[in-house]
Amino acid sequence: MTDRSLGIVVVGLGIAGKVRVRDLKQKVLGDTVVLRGVISRRQVEDDLPVLHWDEALTRDDVDAFIICTENDTHEEYARKILEHGKHVLVDFPLSLTAESGKKIFDLAESKGLTCHVEDIALLLDSHMDMKQTIQNKTAPLIEGSIRLDARFTKEWIADINRAGFPSFSGISQLEILYDLFGELSLQEAHFVHEPDLHLLTCKLHTSDNRPITWTTERVQGGKPRQASQEYKFEDGSTVTPAPVSKPPGPPPPGHKGLFARDVEIFLSEIRGERSSDEIAQDKKRVLYCLELAEKIEKMAKTGTSCS
């Protein structure tokens, strides 16, 4: 990259997209990062440039895109952006199959571009503190559980064709488990799919055969989002973060919130400031969890495992 400002286009103005636009407009990441505009079918603020795909993809002053749209669009948009020689940050999940996710990374690498996948849950102080506590443990894990309860806040989230199977739309929780315990083996997966209910329950084992249960439940008109985790160890201790009832609110002006910190990581990759080992570890985590999400989907739908 040269020393000129790095131009970014935000695609989609849902909750995440609006936060990213706000951070860029407030120059939370400094003057060398410039919001060139947005691509959105929503009504936008009067001072916010609205771009069409053809214009945004061919402008010389646009270097990167941030995708904040429905899950089923991520693969198509990421591929289109990379094929036009632009860097891309994608809100999770990167794609709705493991193979397509690998192809997107391969495309980025073949063109010397950055493809970064968001997972702000891994940037939470509570997660990093819990990870450090678990890493310092000498006693083995007895069992663990991770659970997400939420309601269908938007119509598309209830549509599996658009949101993806819950193991993909909820892949952030698989990434949390991978970050804490490494690779996991799938033992059981069950899915209840009703008009007003999506309930996925999975039984997983750590590499040393310790059980972890993952449950994600979305209900029409249910309670606000609440996530919980609990890990019991043989020394009698239980490790659990403070419950998260909703996504973090807007940070004070000028403060780097979770989404801004995520963009900061993305920019450091573009500028060559992040180590190749860190980038490789992120890619490995993303692809591994996509593969595990796919195995969960197959087992939950058919009762058979993936080889």
TrEMBL record:
Coiled coil: none annotated. It comes from the Eukaryota. Pfam families: Biliv-reduc_cat (PF09166), GFO_IDH_MocA (PF01408). Residues 7-118 form the Gfo/Idh/MocA-like oxidoreductase N-terminal domain. Residues 218-258 are annotated as: Disordered. Residues 244-254 have a biased composition (Pro residues). Residues 131-236 form the Biliverdin reductase catalytic domain. GO terms for molecular function: biliverdin reductase [NAD(P)H] activity; nucleotide binding; zinc ion binding. GO terms for biological process: heme catabolic process. This is Biliverdin reductase A. It comes from Stylophora pistillata (Smooth cauliflower coral). The gene is Blvra.
